[in-house]
Amino acid sequence: MHTTAGSAEPHTLLSIRGLQKEYVAGNAILKGIDIDIKEQGIIAIIGPSGTGKSTLLRCINRLIDPTKGHILLEQEDLSQARGKQLRMLRRKIGMVFQEYNLVERLTVIENVLTGRLGYMSAWNAWRRNFSQEDINTAFELLEAVGLAEHAKKRADSLSGGQRQRVGIARAVMQNPRVLLADEPTSSLDPKTAVEIMELLERFALEKNMPALVNIHDVNLARRYAKRMIGMSNGVVVYDGPPEGITDDHLKQIYGGESWLV
Amino acid sequence: MQTTINHHWQRFTLKQKLARYSVYLVLVVALVQSMQTVEVIPEFFFDAPEQMADMFGRMWPMEWSYYPLSVHDAIVETLNIATIGTLLTLIIAIPLALMNASNITHSAWGHWIARFFLVSSRSVNSLVWALLFVSIFGPGVIAGVLAIAFRSVGFVGKLLAEALEEVDMGAVEAIRATGASPTSILIKGYWPQVLPAFFSIILFRWDINVRESAVLGLVGAGGIGVVLNDSMNLFQWQRVSVALLAIFVVVILAEILVVNIRKKLI
C-alpha cells in the first residue's frame, strides 16, 4: 500500500480522505477510503460486484453524497460543495457509464455537445446556442473517436461500442481534469472492450489527466493500467503498480481461488 | 386384487358455492328493485321507435341555409374553445406534472400539493366546471375555455408526470455529471425523452376537448352547444340536424388530423 496518512501534497490533483458511505445507517459500503491521485493515465479499480467501486466513483462527482470524509479536487472540497460551486467542480470531472447513458433521441453530435452544458446558460441550452468553438471541438472529438460520419444520426441507431465512444467524447468535451469510467467495457464484446480501453488511455495521456476506471476484467486492467487499486468489502486492499498484484492479492480481493487458472 | 382410488375433486367448496349463489341472488334482487324505482312507463317505452321515427322525420330535410347563418360561427367558436382551453391547460399542467413526478421533485409536500390540484381537476366534470364559470363570468366563450382548461389539467398533468417518471435516469445522471444546472437537465435530459409522449397527450386531449366543448353550450358556455340548445328549445328540428351533422363532421376531422400528426411525430 502506498497511501499516505499525511495531508495532501500541493500538487495532488485528486485526494480522497477517509471516505465513507452508508446507504442504510450502520451498514457502510465504503469504510474509509484514502486515495491520492496525481499521475496521468489509466488507474484501474478492481474488485467484486457490490464492493463499492461504483459508489466510490459516484461519490467523487457527487452523483451520490458521501456520508463522511473529504474529496479534494485541486484543493477544493467536493464533499462540501453545493449548488453552483458543485456544478463548477463537476465540469472538471468527465464521466463514462457502463450503459453509455446517452440521450437516445438526440443526435450523436448533440450528445457530444451536452458535455458543454455546465458552461452555458439554460436559455442557450434550450436554443441550442453552442459556440462555434464548441461545435468545432465536438466534430474534432467525433473524428478522434472515429464516428465523424455518424454525427447527425440519432444516438439510438448506433451499436454498443459506438455509443460508448460517443460517451467518451461527451466526457472529454467537458475539458475535464479527471475522467471517471464506471465499468465502461462490461456491456461490450472483448474486442470492442480493448478498443474502448485504448481510447480512454489515449485521451488520458493526450489531455494529461488521470482516468479512474472501474473494471471487472483483471487482465484487461493489467494491460492498460499504470496503477491498480484493489477493493474488497469497502476498503482498499491494494494500491500500486499492476506488476505488484499477486495471486494472493487477487484471492484477498475476490475471495476463493478456483477462478485463478 | 385391483382397486381404483377415486380422487375427489371439486372446483369450489360448499362454503364458496353458497357465497357465489348468494351473490347471484343479491344481483337479481337489486335488478328488480331498481326496475321498480325508475318506474319505466311501458307506454312511453314501447312508444320509443315511433317517437324516434317522428323526430327524424321532422329533422328532414335539413335546413342547409342555417349553416352559414349561425352554425358555422358556432363551430369555429367551439374549435377555438377547445384549442385555447388546451393551450391554457399546458401552462397549468406542466408545473404540476414536474411537481408530481417523483424523479424530479423529491419533496413529499410537493407531491401532495400537485396531486391535490390534479385530482380535484379530474373529479369535477367539465359541464360542472362550465356551470361554475358561467355563474362567475357570465355565459360565453371565457367560461367555456376555463371549463375545458380546468377539466384537462388533471388528465394532462397526470399522464405527463407518468411519462416523466418513465424517463431513462441514466441519461439524466450523465447530464447531471457534466455540471449542467437543474433547468438544463430538464431541457436536455428529460425533455427530449418525454417529447413524443408530450405531443401524444396534448393531441389526444385536444381531440377530447373538441367533443366536450361541443356540449358546453348546453349550459351557456359558448360554442355549437348554444345553437343546438336554442334550436331544440324552439323545436326547430331541421336546424338541430344541421348542428348535429356539423359536430359529427368536425369530430371526425379532428380525429383524422390527430392520427396523422401522431404518426409523423412518433
UniProtKB/TrEMBL annotation, chain B:
Chief place where the protein resides: membrane
Record keyword Phosphoprotein present: no
Keyword Thylakoid: no
Cellular compartment(s): Cell membrane
TM segment ranges: 21-38, 79-98, 127-150, 190-208, 215-235, 241-261
Family, per entry: Belongs to the binding-protein-dependent transport system permease family.
Descriptive protein name: Phosphonate ABC transporter, permease protein PhnE
Species whose genome carries this gene: Marinomonas arenicola
